[in-house]
Amino acid sequence: MSVQKKGNKWYAAVYLGIKDGEQEYDWSDGFDKKEDAQLIELEMKANVIKSNHKVYDKELFSSISDKWLKMRKITVAKTTFRTNSNYYRIYIKDYFKGKLTKDIDSQDIFDFMMQIGKSAATVNKAMNILKQIFDFAISLHQIRTNPCIGIKKPTVKKKKKKTWNEKSINLFLSLRETKSCESYTAYLIMFTTGMRPGEVCGLRWCDWIDDYFIPTLGVDDHGEYTDLKNDKAHDPVFIDHRVMSQLNKLHAAQKALYRDINSHLPLDQQILPEESFINCILPDMRPMSPPYLRKRFYRIMENNKLNKIRLYDSRHSFGTNMMRNKVNPKQVAEMMRHTSVKTTLDNYSHVDEEMYKNTSRTYNDKIFKQAK
Question: What are the domain boundaries of the chain?
């Protein structure tokens, strides 16, 4: 406790940390009123900070949040941590600044949610992060219940995913501009396997084993190496023989280029390392990044007047086309390396226009056939 009552007096206590294995506190004189003790507590904290000592107040929301972020930094992918950190800094940090974790109640959470003033998706993301922080506080025995529980968040309307059918994919991959593009192999892998753009950018030659990949790392939008989304993302990704043929061509070309660039070195140093990236920017062989692939993808679409989709929709196209072809959802989930078949069903069991027309046509054919 930061302020405690002993007998008929109120005392302020500032936690200073661990000394000789024991928790050390600085205690104030006793006060008749709790409010007086709370005021002197603030002065005591300020004095400790001025004297270059760190105040370890285990009950401040900011203190709990800092510890949560440190934990997230080592337990989640860089992109996830960056998102968590940015949302906390932009929406949460200042609002709860100086507040004790135990004093924040459901009304505070509701007021916080109402003042964000952003889209439903942004509000939901901020609220999810806030809930995780309070769950973390519970694990540290700072509070008993999460004040976020029971707060109804705004409904996020799912946008209809834009996808390409097999005909559109074939058209894109067959274009001369696509085939001559340095990122052609990356597009080929994405549309035929449903791999995420960051995963494709992170593929290395050592990840290719016979007719499958074993993804090991990713590349984020900042060009930094990152962990994959989850453990399931490391599962094997099987590839078509035509993809393997393209990989063999690319591998041979990269080996030759690497040998030419390093011709001045001993022969054993002219061999392309197996840790080299498959989809790389030549001649320095830096891995491509998702923005690099996006820029060229959008340019090809625009130049050839193709229906516009996002780069990530290559994955959605893969999943949707599998479902259109009546592949078992469990198998689709395995192919897309989803952690649960529920994710697959939530994302790809929707009836789009083409599926609706086909189903309706089949149903009506039976009706009219029987009517005859």
Answer: 3-47, 61-139, 166-353
